[in-house]
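Training component of the fellowship. As part of building independent skills, the fellow (R.M.) carried out the full modelling exercise for a liganded target. The chosen ligand was zinc ion. The inputs are recorded below so that the supervisory panel can assess the work.
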Amino acid sequence: MADRTASADTETPCGCKIGRVTEGYGLVDLDDDLVAYWTGDGDEQRSTRELATYVNQRILEEALTNADIPPKEGEIENTYRLLTDDDVSSGTRVQTRNELQRDGVPVEQVESDFVSHQTVYNHLTGCLEASVETPSDEERLERSEEKLGALQNRTAAVTTDTVDRLERKDILDIGEFTVNVSVTVTCEDCFREYTVRDLLENRSCDCQKENVGGE
Ligand SMILES: [Zn+2]
Ligand SMILES: [Zn+2]
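Fellow's submitted model of the complex:
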């Protein structure tokens, strides 16, 4: 695991701190990940604060791996929390540092390599020239509709599967069947009920329209 072949990276790293740690720790794909997470490409968008944590945890992971401590599940997150979280007592923090030091992790170096969210932001906008495109309301609605549609399809598939399986075991008796999934949203102000599709289409409960202009 510690065996790491030098990557034939043709791109010159930028001169900022992130460029330096990317090179120093051999964090391949870091830039791609940062841009994808930041712009929300295919995933939920993440804040620069969350991304700083992501970078720092990758640094920590690399440092542990380099010290021949293959990190166990959840260990990186936990160790990072112990080193940085305000809620952790100074005693616990000192103990964590000492343990890492004893295991051959250059804690001080690692901590000074940690980056701030501001650094992440500057790297993304300056070095990588990435920009977050704010989706329009229509795009947001469209994406939401797709997401909910996929969820409903999945629910229908799992339901069909479950009924099928129970029927095959003779636990359940039914003829040919179809499964319909419909999610409804009820306005607690007026108790009108909408399918989620209609609600996204109308973009407002009828009572909210009535309210415009007062009584
Ligand atoms: Zn940079
Ligand atoms: Zn209503």
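The panel noted the following from the submitted structure. Strands lie at 184-186, 193-195. Confidence is low (pLDDT under 50) at residues 1-10.
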